[in-house]
Amino acid sequence: MSARVEVAGPDAAYTVHVERGAIAALPALLQSAVTAHAWAVIADHTVAVLHGGRVRDTLRDAGIDARLFTFPAGERHKTRAEWAVLSDAMIDAGIGRDGAVLALGGGVTTDLAGFVAATYLRGVPLVLAPSSLLAMVDAAIGGKTGVDVPGGKNLVGAFHQPRLVVVDPDLLDTLPDAVFAEGLAEAVKHAAIADVAQLDELEHDAARVLARASDAVEALVRRSVAIKAGFVSADPLEGGRRALLNFGHTIAHAIERVTDYAVPHGHAVAIGVVAEAAIGEAAGITAPGTARRLATVLDALGLPTAPPDGCDADALLDAAAGDKKARAGVLRYALIARIGVPARAADGGWTHAIDASIASVALASTAHRASPGHPSRGPDDGRVVV
Ligand SMILES: NC(=O)c1ccc[n+]([C@@H]2O[C@H](COP(=O)([O-])OP(=O)(O)OC[C@H]3O[C@@H](n4cnc5c(N)ncnc54)[C@H](O)[C@@H]3O)[C@@H](O)[C@H]2O)c1
Ligand SMILES: [Zn+2]
Q1: Closest-lying ligand 1 atom to the alpha carbon of residue 186
Q2: 188-217: string of b/e by CB count within 10 Å (b at 16+)?
């Protein structure tokens, strides 16, 4: 079954096309969205080996000039250095202003290749073919691109809206279970900020989702895409309500930074969602019991819910203070009133300034939460070479 979700951008709308097997239809889909003389297909080494050659050949067989550009897999490579290598390689290959970028991969690839497209010759068209669950339900939608820098995550980047997003759930067949679960963290986040029925469903279907029952996975992808599309359509440049998508992310980014990205983004988000629900509860903003319910569903989905060793409250709050969401020295959080219902701040905005002493006590309480200690896949450096 296929689904098309329209996303409003600041200038033009684009379609998120969700369909099993959609990769085979890429030539027609690309040509319907962009007129380009040449396509730079950008993938990390892992995805390039698994799917990149096939995608390039599918395009070439249809008479489309497509070239594959790769970089080492992993968050540690979402950097200015890789942005420069990819951009230079495209210049060397003679990709001109009539070229376009097809990003094929997880969220690291959609962010990095998106930033290449945003800046290459002052901007070329971008199409995204997300291959991780996390990228399908979240990173590929909304036009945020960028790289990590020593000062923090995603601190250098640009808004560059895709012309089209092609979601082929069949690509998930090669995704390791641990990485699949990471995407579920963002789906839980979406349910937490917008859709209590979706959280009920995730609780009810956790075992089938983890077993990758295709109907359950497709329903989850479609619902989560629709939630994200709703937020970004209403607020394409994050002037207001879109900030709610950052629920859990002030703490998540701090965990990634403190652990030097040894904790993958999805795990950091799972821990961050529980921590920020606890912070909201401690501040009297979030209904009591919310953090516990979120922890229970995340745990059932195979995700961690407590900060790892070395991430005590002080370390996290210090790291978060260096995050871009800290304005004028005050740490701000996007919070929910209860599952499915965002909490609006007294000033009418969507983020709340919370005193460090309150956050610190709440964080300490999450650290003591019994955590079964789900295995982390650890940092990957993508040592596969094409
Ligand atoms: N721009 C946004 O709005 C937004 C939103 C959410 C997350 N993000 C970003 O997304 C990133 C996390 O994304 P991610 O978890 O997808 O990370 P990722 O891109 O590193 O992918 C995770 C791992 O899965 C592998 N992989 C991807 N697809 C595969 C497939 N089909 N088969 C086998 N292996 C596959 C990758 O090679 C990588 O090793 C973070 O950098 C985060 O900041 C961005
Ligand atoms: Zn995220």
Answers
A1: 6
A2: bbbbbbbbeebbebbeebbeebbeeeeebb
Mean pLDDT of the residues in the chain: 93
pTM recorded for the entire structure = 0.93
Q: How do residues 122-144 score in pLDDT, each as one tens digit?
A: 999 999 999 999 999 999 999 99
Q: Give residue 323's pLDDT.
A: 61
pLDDT per residue over 27-82, tens digit each? Answer: 999 999 999 999 999 999 999 999 999 999 999 999 999 999 999 999 999 999 99
Q: Tokens representing 105? A: 């991969």
Q: Ligand 2 centre from 228 Cα, in Å?
A: 11
Cα gap 267→244, rounded to integer Å:
19
348 Cβ contact list (under 8 Å, min separation 6): none
Question: CB neighbours of 251 closer than 8 A, spacing ≥ 6?
Answer: 268, 271, 272, 275, 276, 279, 307, 316, 320, 363
Type and span of the H or E element at 250: helix 249-258
Determine how β-strand 336-338 pairs with β-strand 341-342: antiparallel
Q: What is the pLDDT of residue 259?
A: 95
Active site (annotated) includes residue 325 = no
CA of 346 to the centre of ligand 1 (A): 35
Candidates 202, 349, 188, 212; CA nearest to 277 is 188
Going by C-alpha positions, the residue among 105, 99, 96 that lies closest to residue 73 is 105
Q: Which two tokens stand for residue 66?
A: 């497509």
Catalytic-residue membership of 265 = yes
Phi, psi for residue 73 in degrees, rounded to 5:
-70, 150
Residue to mutate, 115, 261, 265, ligand 1, most ligand atoms under 8 Å from C-beta: 265
pLDDT given at position 380: 55
Cα 311 to the chain's mean position, in Å? 22
Question: How many C-beta atoms lie closer than 10 Å to residue 21's C-beta?
Answer: 11
Indicate the helix (H) or strand (E) that contains 279: helix 265-282
